[in-house]
Amino acid sequence: MSAIRPRLIHSQRLPAAVAARIARDYDAPPPPGHKLTPTELVALAQAFRPDAVMVTTGTPVTAETVAALPDSVRVIATISVGTDHLDISAIAARGLALTYTPDVLTDCNADLTMMLILAAARRGAEYLGVMQAGWGRSFGMEEMLGVRVTGKTLGIVGMGRIGRAVAQRARGFDMKILYSNRRRLAPELEAGATYFADMREMLPHCDILSLHMPGGAAAAAVITAETLALLPKGAIFVNAARGSLVDEDALIAA
Q1: In the chain, where does DSSP find H-type helix?
Q2: Interatomic CA distance for residues 59 and 45, integer angstroms
Q3: What b/e sequence results for 122-137 when a residue is b if at least 16 CB atoms lie within 10 Å of its CB, and e otherwise?
Q4: Region 56-60: what's the mean pLDDT?
Q5: From CA 201, how far away is CA 231, in angstroms rounded?
Q6: Who's near 99: CB < 8 A, 6+ residues apart?
Q7: Can you list the domains of the chain with their CATH numbers?
Q8: Residues in CB range of 138: below 8 A, 6 or more apart
Q9: N or C: which end of the chain has fewer CB within 10 A?
Q10: What does the mean pLDDT of the chain come to?
């Protein structure tokens, strides 16, 4: 007699390798053809009575969703680094285990951050537009130069896993690293970076500012008109965190 496999439902179609692992190790219904809404997720859970529910950021798990799940559910797993779409308090209050994937995108996010820094500094979007238009003109020696990032000062707000990965890459460009964090890092993690307890004291020294703080529905904007005004003229700002951390109207106005 074969062992009884855990029962699992998931909120959207998954990559082939993940789907194969689920088919091998779990008792699961066919994958949905679209991202399930919270109402659809609850209906599927009530019909299938799974041990675990797997979601992505596209399907919020609110307090109402948690309350409506059948008592068979013991685990909620999210395929994400962020947990903004989950009511963690409600999940904990019901005694459910919660799992997520905290380190899976660290290098990817750091790579994209460096891409954005380089694209902003070297006017990548503008050159893309020129190229797509057929390179209909040439440029003078002082046109479309952009700025070099080599030797610039990079300020990092939020020196967690991703912030440190960005700092590691920036050192390859001989950039000076400053950072602001809730607490100072140990020397081996700091790796020569300069710590500022108050972000506002760091900003006037930054040629480039990169944001890597956790967000959430209740998170207040960190980058505001006041903080943007503290940056040097011509500074580059990259937000590699949540949009809610930035006052976008103030950013556009700056």
Answers
A1: 16-25, 38-48, 63-68, 88-93, 106-121, 124-132, 161-171, 187-190, 199-202, 225-228, 248-253
A2: 14
A3: beeeeeeeeeeeeeee
A4: 93
A5: 10
A6: 75, 76, 77, 78
A7: 8-99 (3.40.50.720), 106-253 (3.40.50.720)
A8: none
A9: N
A10: 93
